[in-house]
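Sample entry (336 residues):
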Amino acid sequence: MTKRAILLANLGSPDTPTTTAVRRYLNQFLMDPYVIQLPWILRRMIVSLFVLPTRPKASAEAYQSVWMPKGSPLIVLSEKLKNALQARLKMPVEMAMRYGNPSIEQQLLKITADKSIEEVLYIPLYPHYADSTVTTSIEEAKRVIKKHGLDITLTIIPPFYDHPQYIEALVTSAQPYLEQPYDHVVFSYHGLPESHITKLDSSGSQCLKQNNCCQGSHPAHKTCYRHQVMRTTECFATQAGLEKQRYSVAFQSRLGRAKWLGPNTEDTLRDLAQQGAKHVMVLCPAFVTDCLETLEEIAIRGEEVFKEAGGEKLTLIPCMNDDPAWVNVLADWCQN
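Predicted structure, serialized as tokens:
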């Protein structure tokens, strides 16, 4: 029987909440051609002239507001997930980050130091497809394997945005919060530039070209982030019994001047408050692990926006993190 190891992969985090560490992290992240999809020279100019001079300091302050005693929330919570999964399996489990540490290269070399490992089951922890998350993560794993001549089979778990087990685990982890009184649920997904969506539509006539482009069935949906987040929302709402008028979809984390998917989360929170909503729940299904984008951008800044507009309370529904239901799903995938 083939001896398998598991490698979970997530986006990454700076090593410390300092301007220097954040600058190093942002440089690696934003210079990835899958993230800023422009020629190298233009990417370099944008990052060096418009991002790195000012953003690292502000981002470092944001990280400081949510930093845990043991480190970055994403790293700490990812380690807890890895440990919980390892406790369920007899095969090795490691966790890697696309940017920062521990890197995909470090972890693949660690795994393959055991010469009996023949297969690595690679699980990018992104429910929805995007070049800037899924593709770059997979390509980095392939680069490392080729660079070091690693004699392993790389088996990849594809995006699982509407997988019944994922949806069930997501609903199960959120259920205790949905049982509380609230006025509205906002499904806040990480945003993407619209060009990232249309670039992947080989037909050139489906994605963002018509009002109902995410409905029905179309080959472009296999790589369409917007379709997939809408599908996650639909599946979640059906299973959780949410009424259509009590939830909405929005997109957070815009960067730069390109046209991004909308509506924007902060605008949505303002509108809800101005319409009379007093208590909103915010769920962030693009992330399986809590991080800066959930703990600071939503739970801190999002709440400030909502209250300034007249709302009273914003509750962040935590990501699945190491919820037993999610660990059970991963364990099942790893053993099949």
